[in-house]
Amino acid sequence: MIIRWPHLLRWFQTQRDGDPSPGNDPTKRILALAADADTPKAFEKSLRDDGIEASWTDDAELWGVLHAETPPDLSIVLAASRGLW
Q: DSSP states of 10-65 as a string?
């Protein structure tokens, strides 16, 4: 992920640095929006509606990765919780 989408991972990190409270998990927030979206455009709109405007929001391939089911031991949430950037 860091090679293909470094802007996304930096965004995750800055979001965590800004409000490290347990209820503010930007990784889970993004994954939930991606899971709920039926298309990349719907995902982009959901992000915009949620107040997220970033360079990575219109990347259809990234939406596909975030939208796909991932085994728990390979999840982005797990990696982010361990600080594996």
A: HHHHHHHHH---TT--HHHHHHHHHHH-SSHHHHHHHHHHTT---TTTT-HHHHHH
Domain-embedded: residue 11: no
The answer to whether position 70 is within a domain reads: yes
Q: Is residue 44 part of a domain?
A: yes
Measured between alpha carbons, how far is 22 from 44 in angstroms, rounded to an integer? 25
Chain segment 38-81, per-residue pLDDT in tens: 999 999 999 999 999 888 999 999 999 999 988 887 787 777 77
pTM of this structure: 0.79
